[in-house]
Design a protein that fits this description.
Strands 6-5-7-4-3-8 form a six-stranded mixed sheet, with helices on both faces. It has one domain (about 5-50, about 75-175, about 190-300). It contains 15 helices and eight strands. A hairpin with a 2-residue loop joins β1 and β2. It is of the alpha/beta class. The protein has helices spanning about 5-15, 15-20, 70-75, 85-90, 95-100, 110-115, 115-130, 140-150, 165-175, 185-195, 195-210, 210-225, 230-240, 245-265, 285-295; strands at about 30, 35, 40-45, 50-55, 80-85, 180-185, 270-275, 300. About 50% of the residues lie in helices and about 10% in strands.
Length: about 300
């Protein structure tokens, strides 16, 4: 296994498929007279303000510079929180625990774990990507699901190094702002590793068989994000209910775990800028609905105040 592929797969492990797959460029930024349709919400408590940004973890150059709602919310905050501690997310050194948890250690191989049909489709896709099946024979199905899903043809212009997280982490790092994460590396890995092999294979087979359909879905997802269309994002999230256990693990459980942390942020005297994948916002299981059920009022940040 080459260092090149370990680092590549490390990146896609830490950024779940639901939020990383991107699409071809859409239209120019939706801006007019200082307004934009960015999916940023704020909650004001008696002591501070918490901003919640629905992000894309990979973007294309044409989406920069970001519009003023982004920068206003960031500059009005003293603490910047991501899904995972960014010092882990953006490390250039592969973490041993990631490599270990994503690989078979009992003599099992991916060929043995998959049905012949799925394995045949996988090897064909890997060769198209320039990867020898031998290089990844020890990887579990969920790891290959992330790898294959993270390299759809239309994603070539979208790069993680241009994602919202890296952009604001670099700004926070340069400014000396405090950063943190909502969950641990182990939490993120367990989203996938606790799925049964049957469930992992179902996800892998879906992306192998229906890659073009998924690309079209992500084109619409990016457009919805870009236009600030929360209803459009909700329709996208609904497609993942076809895999109930995965949907529960990647969205529902994590959202419920994050709500108490956001509530704790609201008791601080400093403002918080919370950056999470946009798929965590919409729907009855989304952060917006869960926080509203708790009695909080969320206001859309649609312009930069003077």
């Amino acid at each position: 296994m080459t260092t090149r592929w370990i680092r590549h797969i490390l990146l896609w492990t830490l950024i779940p498929l639901l939020m990383v797959l991107s699409a071809t460029a859409t239209s120019a930024q939706v801006v007019g007279n200082g307004y934009n349709n960015s999916l940023i919400y704020k909650i004001e408590s008696g002591t501070n303000t918490v901003y919640i940004l629905g992000s894309l973890h990979a973007l294309a150059e044409e989406y920069y510079p970001l519009t003023r709602s982004f920068t206003y919310s960031y500059y009005d905050s003293q603490k910047v929180i991501f899904e995972i501690d960014p010092t882990i997310l953006f490390t250039s050194t592969p973490k041993p625990e990631i490599v270990k948890q994503s690989m078979f250690t009992n003599g099992m191989t991916i060929q043995k774990a998959l049905t012949p049909k799925t394995y045949q489709l996988l090897t064909k896709k890997l060769r198209q990507m320039g990867i020898s099946p031998k290089e990844v024979e020890k990887f579990k199905p969920w790891k290959l699901y992330l790898l294959v899903g993270g390299t759809l043809d239309s994603a070539k212009d979208f790069r993680p190094d241009l994602g919202i997280e890296r952009y604001f982490y670099q700004m926070a790092k340069d400014a000396g702002k405090e950063t943190g994460g909502l969950e641990t590396l182990e939490d993120q890995l367990n989203v996938f590793d606790t799925l049964s092999f049957k469930e992992q294979e179902a996800l892998l087979l879906e992306v192998l068989q229906n890659g073009q359909t998924q690309e079209k879905q992500f084109v619409q997802m990016v457009k919805s994000w870009h236009q600030g269309n929360l209803a459009g994002m909700e329709r996208f999230v609904e497609t993942f209910k076809a895999y109930p256990k995965y949907y529960q693990a990647i969205l529902v459980k994590r959202n419920h775990n994050w709500v108490p942390q956001i509530e704790a942020f609201l008791k601080d005297t400093k403002n918080y800028f919370v950056v999470v994948g946009v798929a965590h916002l919409p729907g009855e299981d989304g952060l917006i609905a869960l926080l509203e059920k708790k009695g909080y009022t969320l206001e859309r940040v649609s312009f930069a105040r003077p």
